Amino acid sequence: YLADGDIYLTGRVKDLIIRGGRNIYPYELEQAVGEIPSVRKGCVAVFASSDPATGSERLVVVAETRVMQPEARERLRQQIQNVSVDLLGMPPDDVQLTPPRTVLKTSSGKIRRAAIRELYKQNALGRGGRALWLQLTRMTLVSAWAQIQRLGRDVGERLFAGYAWTMYGVLAPFTWLGIMILPKLEWRWGLARTASRLLAWATGTPLTVRGLQHLPTGACILVANHSSFLDAYVLIAAIPRHFHYVAKRELLNNPWLARPLQRVGTLFVERFDLQRSVDEARKVAEAAHAGQSLGFFPEGTFKRTPGLLSFRMGAFMAAAQAGVPVAPVTIRGTRDILRAGSWFPRRGHLEVIVEPPIQPTGDDWSAAVRLRDAVRAVILRNCGEPDAAE
User: Fold this and answer.
1) Does residue 179 register a pLDDT over 70?
2) Is residue 79 part of a domain?
């Protein structure tokens, strides 16, 4: 129930007992009855059972005890009724005193009220309980089966990770070589897109793309959230046109990455040197003004924990100064497949959502801020992750 803005959990709906227009949860009565001397603690079940004569629900208490004398059992029944009256304001309709090991429980110790109710309806409570050695054997087998299932899942995950990296290792050299030797930019982009789609297909990773009709046909700036190293591959596979993606200048330190990135038109910006950062931001804005479509990950980085980080202003200043729309694109699923700080890929589903473009309302800083906030709100709504802005 809700009180003063706080939610209080009272119990599970399936355990709810409705009697006399009141909602009764069994837990407190079970605990109170378990405190009565001669009742086995933790071996009490309270549930509702339909009365076949009237169709109404009856409140039933099943309690385990070793007491066998008729007089003592009658006194114990009276004590249970008194506890129920004190706690609920009403006595139970039926009190069943049963021998030990009658109240069924799960392997974790939770009371199986539904199963006990069925035994009660069949008048089978306390009949022919399983021998202790049979119960121990069953619990051992159940535990062993759970361990085998966990081991199977672990082996399956490791096999998938190895297979995924094998597929990447097969595709990457041919893609790298093709990008380096193909003479036309369109051909190089086509090869990269085909390889990215082939990797998703080979690893059995579904890729769903929604809203491609919203992507402008003319120059625009694409802005996407950043959750994993896979994001660039996903965008290349999902977006059927060429964008000049903006990347951090540190990637130029790796020649094996720098050369193919340059060959597909990537623009590099400085993140730490202020003067160089300003100069390169100006070049990016000029590229947008010249009609080039640019792609940004405005968070600038990604973390292991879910959450949409703050957006940097570069993409939105470029859009405002060039007067081109920004297309908000949301990527879902990459963090679950390959998290930051891990090189262990897992199975998952990828989704890309393209929303209608947002036009800047001016060319100054305040217009860029408004544009950033509007785009971020759209991506935050679609990404399914919390707001992690600092």
Assistant:
1) yes
2) yes
